[in-house]
Specification:
The structure is a single chain. The chain is mainly beta. The chain is built from no helices and four strands. The chain has a domain of 38 residues. Strand 1 and strand 2 form a beta hairpin.
Length: 55
Protein backbone atom coordinates (compact mmCIF):
# COMPACT_ATOMS: atom_id res chain seq x y z
CA UNK A 1 0.00 0.00 0.00
CA UNK A 2 1.30 3.45 -0.86
CA UNK A 3 0.02 6.99 -0.31
CA UNK A 4 0.77 9.77 -2.79
CA UNK A 5 0.21 13.52 -2.58
CA UNK A 6 -1.48 15.39 -5.43
CA UNK A 7 1.90 16.04 -7.07
CA UNK A 8 2.54 12.31 -7.31
CA UNK A 9 5.15 12.17 -4.57
CA UNK A 10 5.07 9.03 -2.47
CA UNK A 11 4.57 10.06 1.16
CA UNK A 12 4.06 6.59 2.66
CA UNK A 13 4.81 3.03 1.62
CA UNK A 14 4.15 -0.18 3.53
CA UNK A 15 4.13 -3.80 2.55
CA UNK A 16 0.99 -5.47 3.84
CA UNK A 17 0.39 -9.20 4.03
CA UNK A 18 -2.77 -10.52 2.43
CA UNK A 19 -5.99 -9.03 3.67
CA UNK A 20 -9.24 -10.84 3.10
CA UNK A 21 -11.97 -8.90 1.33
CA UNK A 22 -13.70 -6.51 3.69
CA UNK A 23 -10.83 -6.17 6.13
CA UNK A 24 -9.40 -2.76 6.94
CA UNK A 25 -5.92 -1.43 7.52
CA UNK A 26 -5.41 1.60 9.78
CA UNK A 27 -2.57 4.03 9.16
CA UNK A 28 -2.00 6.77 11.72
CA UNK A 29 0.67 9.11 12.99
CA UNK A 30 1.95 10.14 9.56
CA UNK A 31 1.67 13.86 10.20
CA UNK A 32 0.20 14.51 6.75
CA UNK A 33 -0.76 18.08 6.00
CA UNK A 34 -4.42 18.79 5.20
CA UNK A 35 -5.21 18.07 1.57
CA UNK A 36 -6.11 15.35 -0.89
CA UNK A 37 -4.08 12.15 -1.27
CA UNK A 38 -4.31 8.97 -3.31
CA UNK A 39 -4.04 5.55 -1.70
CA UNK A 40 -2.95 2.70 -3.96
CA UNK A 41 -3.21 -0.92 -2.88
CA UNK A 42 -1.68 -3.66 -5.01
CA UNK A 43 -2.23 -7.40 -4.99
CA UNK A 44 -1.05 -10.32 -7.06
CA UNK A 45 -3.49 -9.84 -9.91
CA UNK A 46 -5.20 -6.55 -9.12
CA UNK A 47 -4.88 -3.09 -7.66
CA UNK A 48 -7.15 -0.34 -6.43
CA UNK A 49 -6.92 3.37 -5.79
CA UNK A 50 -8.91 5.72 -3.59
CA UNK A 51 -8.90 9.45 -2.91
CA UNK A 52 -8.51 10.43 0.73
CA UNK A 53 -9.01 13.89 2.19
CA UNK A 54 -7.06 14.88 5.31
CA UNK A 55 -8.64 17.77 7.20
Amino acid sequence: MAIYDMLGRKVYDEGISSLESGNTHVVSGLGLKPGMYYVKAMGNNSFGTAKVVIQ
